[in-house]
Amino acid sequence: MTRLTGWALALLVAPVAVAADAPYRTRDDMRLASGALIRLLLQEGPSRALSAARANSHRDDPKVQANLEWATQTLPARLAHLGSCHRVTPRDEAQFASSFMRFYFVLDCDQGQRQFMLTYRRKNDGWRLNQFYFD
């Protein structure tokens, strides 16, 4: 399966994939989960998306939880001035240090764009969300 086909599938089945709980086992699982989180953000807003992100994160890691708390406090205001958002475009993915995987997205809105980077980290029990970042 090509990367583009994988992304198309991830965006089509996104609402289903968010129900799959971490830890994730494969790159495809993470691709589906990251696409689902951004699609959930588009469809239901930051509160619901960040709640799902927290549920599938490294809950025992204070830095991860601090990042998600920052996103919860900051993202609504960062989206408000962009107006209605209507499209998610996957941009890239990268693996580094054998234990980290990143997925990049662009959210297109009436008054601009917001870029997202979701990083997953593999620990003992599999892959979980490690960072939810946006510009």
Report on the architecture of this protein.
The chain is α+β, with helices and mostly antiparallel strands and 135 residues long. Helices cover 45% and strands 32% of the residues. It has a 4-stranded antiparallel β-sheet with strand order 1-2-3-4. A hairpin with a 2-residue loop joins strand 2 and strand 3.
Structural class, by secondary structure, is alpha+beta
Spans where pLDDT lies below 50 across 5 or more residues: 13-17
| Rg over C-alpha atoms, rounded to the nearest angstrom | 14 Å
The biggest sheet, with number of strands, parallel, antiparallel or mixed sense and barrel status, is:
4 strands, antiparallel
Say how many strands there are: 4
**SSE topology string:** HHHHHEEEE
Query: What is the terminal separation in angstroms?
Result: 30 Å
Tally of helical segments: 5
Q: What spatial form do the alpha-carbon principal axes imply?
A: globular
Overall average residue pLDDT:
89
Binned strand content:
25-35%
Helical residues, percent = 40-55%
What topology, given as strand order, has the largest sheet?
Answer: 1-2-3-4
